[in-house]
From TrEMBL:
Any Pfam family the entry gives: Glyco_hydro_94
TM region(s), chain numbering: none
Cross-referenced InterPro entries: 6-hairpin_glycosidase_sf, 6hp_glycosidase-like_sf, Gal_mutarotase_sf_dom, GH65_N, GH94_catalytic, GH94_Enzymes, Glyco_hydrolase_94_b-supersand
Domain of life: Bacteria
Name of the molecule in the record: Glycosyl transferase
Signal peptide positions (record): none
Keywords (A to Z) from UniProt: Glycosyltransferase, Transferase
Record flagged with keyword Repeat: no
GO biological process, one term: carbohydrate metabolic process
An annotated Gene Ontology molecular function: glycosyltransferase activity
Residue ranges of every copy of the Glycosyl hydrolase 94 supersandwich domain listed in the record: 11-279
SUPFAM superfamilies for the chain: Galactose mutarotase-like (SSF74650), Six-hairpin glycosidases (SSF48208)
Gene3D superfamilies (alphabetical): 1.50.10.10, Glycoside hydrolase, family 65, N-terminal domain (2.70.98.40), Maltose phosphorylase, domain 3 (2.60.420.10), mpn423 like domain (1.20.890.20)
Amino acid sequence: MRYGYFDDARREYVITRPDTPVPWINYLGTDEYFGIVSNTAGGYSWHLDARLRRLTRYRYNNVPGDSGGRYLYLRDDASGEYWSPSWQPVRTPLDSYECRHGLSYTAISSSRAGIATETVYFVPRGENHEVWRLSVTNTRERAAEVSVFSSVEFALWDAQDDTTNFQRNYSTGEVEVVGGVIYHKTEYRERRDHFAYFACSEPLAGFETQREAFLGPYRGFHEPLGVERGELGNSIAHGWSPHGAHHVRLALQPGETREVVFLLGYWANPKDAKFEATGVVNKAGVKPVIEKWLDPQTVADALADLRSYWEDLLGVLHVDTPDRDTNRMVSIWNTYQCMVTFNMSRSVSSYETGISRGMGFRDSCQDLLGSVQLDGPRARQRIIDLAATQFASGGAYHQYQPLTKTGNDAIGSGFNDDPLWLVLGVAAYLKETGDTSILDETVSFSDGGEATLYGHLERSVQYTLDRTGPHGLPLIGRADWNDCLNLNCFSETPGESFQTTENREGGVAESVFIAGLFTLAARELAGIAALAGREAEAESYRADAEKMAAITAEHGWDGEWFLRAYDHFGNPVGSGKNAEAQIFLEPQGMCVMAGIGLTDAANPASGTLAERALSSVRERLTTPHGIMLLQPAFTTYHVELGEISSYPPGYKENASVFCHTNPWVMIAAALTGDGDAAYDYYRRINPSAREAIGDVHKCEPYVYAQMIAGRDAPTHGEAKNSWLTGTAAWNYVAITQWILGIRPELGGLRVDPVIPSSWPGFTATRRFRDATYQITVRRAGTLDSGIAEGASVTVNGERVIGTLLPLAPAGDTVRVEVVLPS
């Protein structure tokens, strides 16, 4: 079943019924102020840090799942009937409903009883507030008296404390109302510098700032007493639950439309601002801001500016292929999701509270792969922030808080793959921008001392070289990419489990996956060293890569696929010798991406190691819904393997289609020249291609999900954990750089497509280093049938050798034609 449709011309997904299988959300904000909004206006807002600067309250595990949000209520003052124009929370049936999720904005339209509304939610560029622009139209043949009520529930800033420390928080909430503006000032008498505000462009008939006064006793947001009776009591919150509610009365003639602007924002006074009096908000700085943004014309201009911003970003790469789903994902939604994951890492979504996780080191490094082309300056700063969470050993905090930029001590370090991802992130930045000056930036270590960014990269690689195990493979530490594969969590006594820091990080379990990642990272660092004129070091890193590749081929190969690891006791993991989890996806993709086994094999007659590994993936792991992470699924808990075996079969790390890893196999297939397989895998998890099975997939059809339930699960094909996933960046890399073959490299832009045999070709426009490349790819025809293998490339009509394009001067437009063998 479909719950909506793509409007590609407007770059929107249009939801045509409110009862989607799960809340289908969008993100608001592009800079420092962000929010989540669902198709029924559920969600919440924060400034910079979703834990420490939470503006509005949200209850996870609530029913419905997106209860609490940016709610508006309409009331027919003649009949007393009221409803929600976003359907929730009242859920009164609507005569019409439509939600348009756009790029950093959402518009919800509906009508009931002859009153039509449209509410547009967005965060203006460069501002620390959100706008709700409500249009109300009387489509009746008679005049209408309508009341509009707004509602937000303020969080007490620290979301963790807000949800746990009730004995204190019920006495600390404070609100002040001046000139119709509601100021939420909890913490203000302590900090004296920050507050939230909630303003309305129309004169108020009343307001409430205490939740209980707005809702009434034993009532929820679906039946607020203030809305029911059509009158608010002007309460001022002192303790309990600070709230923001406005009441506006509108007298509408037949056909008349009125616009009301609501403004919810965050404000921090300068540190030297005068503090007026104990507990009184210094409002001088924010007053002009509120007055400006309550003007409808300012709002209209800002919305146009937001659209222009995304128009420019999406102009970095636009493709026209024979497949509509590919076009809309590459040119619109996958790009958009890459930018959202860059902003959020994995910290805050419908599945992450924003409390327990900050910015992930591994996660953010991978997110750079899909976003460096969109915002080079912010990518540069992100790299510096990430490097600053490293230790002098080369290890790194696994997560850091976006507000404080400090590492998360509760999670700590010891995930031995983390440092290597920094090399890949920096390599992606250098390939896209050519900005080698970043390598000379001095960056501190978390535990003291400093080095250039290049020095941080050196320590990232050395960290692995200093930590190898009995087979010469890298030690896994607490875990590698798969946080749930805990091979140093073990018991010497059967049936007894224990877990200590020493055992997690000091064990001898080895990771074949990290071996592949190290090989790839060492080769990338060799290229960076050569670019920096350090040829001797470049040669040393090439040698390190070749040595690890050889060790992997010798000790990481199980006969028909790559092993996953060796556990603490030296037993193979991901081997045909195992009863369960005989083959894992991760090393098959990563090792081939690193070039291991691409050109040689123990038995050449049976194919290279890469070809055999990918054949095993096709035979043992592939389903109609994507490639599973492992097979056979674990059916019992294995203490020596840790959390991975705690999930039921087919879910998460226990044999789901973990979408994040699928693109590694797409890239591996492209490296072997198999465009049909690469594109087939791409299509299987493409959310747009899955739109027609909305009742099975359940998650949003416009963004990738982290996982899809695997073959062993009773809900095979059901997606979970949408939006914030490395799937976004890696799928973007797989389709754009390896299947379409438009690939930034240190030396320039390469165009080397490996497309499916059914495609006659495609066109693309790519901005790269301030030049524009207009690319046409086609199959050879009768006029050029002599092309037997490889591609023929012309630039502005001149044939070039190879597929790496000469760098064009800034501002130039370059015509590129690639002819592929027929």
